Amino acid sequence: MIARSIAIAAFAVNLVALPVHAGDASGLDPAAIGQCLASDEGGDCADAGMQACREYAETKYTGDEPDFVEKNCLDASHQAWEAKLTETYQALLDAEAGAGIEPQEILRQTEHAWIGFRDSLCEYRAEAATAREANGELARLECQRDEAARHWALLNARLEEIRE
């Protein structure tokens, strides 16, 4: 885990210039998620921005770790979804404030339970992938990203319901 963080940090520090589409040093533009969600296609936007990130990262990364580009982009995508999730969670907490303390407290408890569920699920997926001789770290990162996107959709639907 530490080695991955150091590698990602080194990758980010060694970048000289970011392309117009890059939202950060990874090459993933978080705006791609918003554009996907706003489009008529909507649907599953968990993968939004990943192809551009891969293409960008492949031009910048010169190391010999075969999965670095995918790990880099999955991690950046996960972080972008976590930021959206945090923003929506806070908005939902604020919206529930008018209903009193009970809904807010239940929402907090639900979020803590969801985090435990997500961590367990993603650990399972990593272990299952490793047992099948696949890359467990890629499976974990993809799971974390996908679960953050799914949970954002649930919280956002609730927030829209309250605002109606």
TrEMBL record:
<dbReference type="InterPro" id="IPR009739">
    <property type="entry name" value="LprI-like_N"/>
</dbReference>
<feature type="signal peptide">
    <location>
        <begin position="1"/>
        <end position="22"/>
    </location>
</feature>
<feature type="domain" description="Lysozyme inhibitor LprI-like N-terminal">
    <location>
        <begin position="71"/>
        <end position="147"/>
    </location>
</feature>
<keyword id="KW-0732">Signal</keyword>
<protein>
    <submittedName>
        <fullName>DUF1311 domain-containing protein</fullName>
    </submittedName>
</protein>
<dbReference type="Pfam" id="PF07007">
    <property type="entry name" value="LprI"/>
</dbReference>
<feature type="coiled-coil region">
    <location>
        <begin position="124"/>
        <end position="151"/>
    </location>
</feature>
<keyword id="KW-0175">Coiled coil</keyword>
